[in-house]
Amino acid sequence: MGGIGKTALAVEAAHQARAKGWFPGGTLFVDLRGYDDNPVTADQAVLALLDALGVRDADLPERTERQYDAYRTLLTARHERMLLILDNASDPSQYLPLLPGTDQHRVLITSRDSPNALPIRIIDLEALVPDESVALVTCALHDADERDERPSRELDSLRELTALCGHLPLALQIAAAMLRQRRHRSISSLVAEIKEAEDPTIVLDNGSPGTDLYGRSLVLRPVLETSYRRLPPAQARLLRLLSLAPGSETTTEAVTALADLGTEAASLSLLENLAATHLVAPVQSGEGSASVLRWQLHDLVRAFAVSVVARDQGLRKEGETARERVLTFYYRWADAADDRLRWLPGAVEPERFTGRKEALEWLDGERAGLVAAVLWAREERFTDTAVRLAGCLAQYLDWRRYFDDLITTMRAAREATHRAGNVLGESMAWNNLGIALRKVGRRDEAIDAHTCDRDLCQAAKDRPGEADAWNNLGNAFLEADRVEEAINALTRARDLHQVTGNRQGEADAWNNLGSALKKADRTEEAIKGHTRARDLYRVTQDRHGEAVAWNNLGCALPNEEWEEAIEACSRALEIFQEFEDWYETGQTLHNLALAHEEAARTAEARAHHLRAADAFTRANAPDQAAQSRADAENLE
After folding, report:
1. How far is the C-alpha of 244 from the C-alpha of 306, rounded, in Å?
2. In this structure, what DSSP letter does residue 382 have?
3. Which has the closest alpha carbon to 531: 560, 518, 559?
4. Chain centroid to CA 129
5. Minimal CB count within 10 Å: which of 48, 50, 232, 468?
């Protein structure tokens, strides 16, 4: 893309190659100015090349065809290898007539466009990595004043500055020039100025002094504008809409919905053409059937395109409609995926996803965009759909243990529903927020969240919701070692579920109540609770719930009944592995290890701890994985 440092790299490479004696015949350099208003034509460039080769005045042929003949004849006659750099080409017509026509010499071309139709070796340049960006700015400051201590004194601010510049060499050079000019001001002051403006190009271009080593103005926006103006209308429209997409990367399917292109094939073709201009980049992740192709805009390109939309009322309206389309798309399929994750035999089959694995793969591929789209709930136009989307993501984010995302989405949903007076939506958000807070160990906040949920449900006379709230409040009390309060809350949840006839909810309450009774040393009652939960889960054909009950039952059994405990946990393990629930698999393997320890089976216990470590690793639970490995090592 523009500003990536193509010319600087080409010139530096040429200097090093000449120093090593690779091109004893010399080097030729022509700036084709391909993205200026008046690009240099091949006919104009050949005159400059002939002049550099000593052909001028009376020796210069009058006719253009003869000028090309003279140029190629001179290159063919030179037996010592030469390097020809054709810089800043926007179209093959600028450089194809200038190729030497002999393999004796070498040609290096720089461009913002990939000439994929030509048999030319292409080297794509990407933005610098963070450490390289920091080094570039540091060197630029020390070259001007080796006593400049700001890079070492404000390393965190320098890292933030390079990130705001998108690690783009041109932006970094501009920032460095501004810092040299502001030698008595801090790096953090420039960071604050850029963040306040939101669009970095505004600050960088307004404060940019002078030109670079090649006499080109140190400016960002004109570089982006020239690339944008050259795009065909369909590609320009797609670039604008892509800048409005939620998340930093967008799948082809989501782009299709965003731009209303009808088919993924149509989107893919347009995206590939746009990628050839280096204004969008493809990002492939995953392997096999789980492989996902996403499309990414450089941060500065995104900021530029957003500003283009913001300045035009018609483009703003087009953009809002596009955002509505992609949000509707996300909600439809997230709802279907959530239905599949919650599906039990006898229920209506969800659309599209034939199994849990397929639903999880789709959610995994779209997660960043889904989470970002929920944050649109802060805007009145999108509130309702974004809040419903948040509800569809709760089970998935909890299952995958993306608790930070769960907290983020539920806070956004809670704020939006409270502002809109949507009591049931707000209670849902409080409930899911409480679950996430409990899972990350923020117990007091979790209790407060579930208390708010309960109070809202009671005020709305939502008995099923109140029952769920009591159940989750009981779990939060249990995590905080407030055991008697947990037992009271879970008993209340069980009774309410019985009154409303919700067997699934009753099973959950019995299961959790069993855990609380076990912690209160009421072992026989705990065993009864888990057994009752297991039987109810079987009635509702909830195999995953049945596995949880089996696992808890194994933990509730007295130590001397280790054989029964191993049997119960083994049944749970089989089901959890069937569901590919790696966290619960790890928990169950841990419990099996403890049962084998009780039976003095050290080798079996160690093996189960190590298997638990593997399962926890797959479940994105590194702390538990480390603990399981330590448990294995501590066994004699």
Report:
1. 7
2. G
3. 518
4. 17
5. 232
Cβ-contact 165, 46 below 8 angstroms: no
| Cβ 283 vs Cβ 242: under 8 Å | no
Under DSSP, the state recorded for 217 is: B
Place of tokens 């004849």: 73
The residue among 485, 460, 481 whose CA lies nearest residue 473 is 485
Q: What is the DSSP letter of 96?
A: G
- Cα 470–Cα 472–Cα 476 angle in degrees, nearest 5: 110
In the predicted structure, residue 211 carries a pLDDT above the cut 90 = no
Q: Contact 194/164 with Cβ under 8 angstroms?
A: yes
Report pLDDT digits (tens) over 373-383: 999 999 999 99
What pTM did the predictor assign?
0.85
Q: Which of 537, 486, 476, 484 is nearest to 507 (CA)?
A: 537
Report helix, strand or coil for 257: helix
Alpha carbon distance 312, 307 (integer Å)? 9
Which residue stretches of 56-168 are H helix? Answer: 64-77, 92-95, 130-144, 150-153, 155-164
Among the listed residues 436, 429, 433, the one whose alpha carbon sits nearest the alpha carbon of residue 377: 429
| Exposed e or buried b per residue across 21-58, where buried means at least 16 C-beta atoms within 10 angstroms of its C-beta | eebeeebbbbbbbbbeeebbebeebbbebbeebebeee
Question: Could you tell me the two tokens for 122?
Answer: 């292409």
- Residue 118 CB burial class (10 angstroms; 0-12, 13-18, ≥19): exposed
Q: How many C-beta neighbours within 10 Å does residue 195 have?
A: 12
Strand 292-296 and strand 106-111: pairing?
unpaired
H helix runs in 343-459, sequence order: 356-374, 383-399, 403-420, 423-439, 443-459
Q: Show the tokens assigned to 24.
A: 């004893």
Could you write out the three-class secondary structure of 264-306? HHHHHHHHHHHHCCCCCEEEEECCHHHCEEEEECCHHHHHHHH
Instruction: Report CA-CA distances (Å) from 502 to 107, 339, 347, 497.
Output: 75, 18, 15, 5
Using one digit for the tens of pLDDT, what is the confidence trace for 286-297? 666 566 789 999
